[in-house]
Every structure is written in structure tokens, then in C-alpha cells.
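WARN retry 2 of 3 for item q-0093 after timeout on previous attempt; input resubmitted unchanged.
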Amino acid sequence: MIDERRGDLDQDAFLQAARADERGLVAEFIAFMAENKVWWLAPILIVIALFGVLLVLGATGVAPFLYPFF
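OK item q-0093 returned
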């Protein structure tokens, strides 16, 4: 009896999770970092993202305006 009830509760929780709105990739990653307590990854990812933005901007017409920063 108890096992059946637990199975029903597990299935209800599964159905509620399936009906919930999907989170985006960034929200999922932030939730992952919070749950696993790996906040030290945040500065590394921010620097990598900023470097990627510089690479993209360096290939456009904005490049001459970036040179004075270096």
C-alpha cells in the first residue's frame, strides 16, 4: 500500500515537472552551478564570453574603435 502511494506521488511529481515551462540554457546552467556549488566557474565563463564578443566585434566595422583599448 505504501509503495503504491509513493509510486503515485512520484508519478504526480513527474507529470508536474513535464507540464512546467522549460527554462533556457542560461537558467539551467545557473541552476546547475547553484545546486553543485561551482560558482568559481562564473568568472571563467564571463571572461570566455567577453573574449568571444571581442572576436566577433573584431571582424566587423567596429574593429578600428577597439584598437585604442589595446
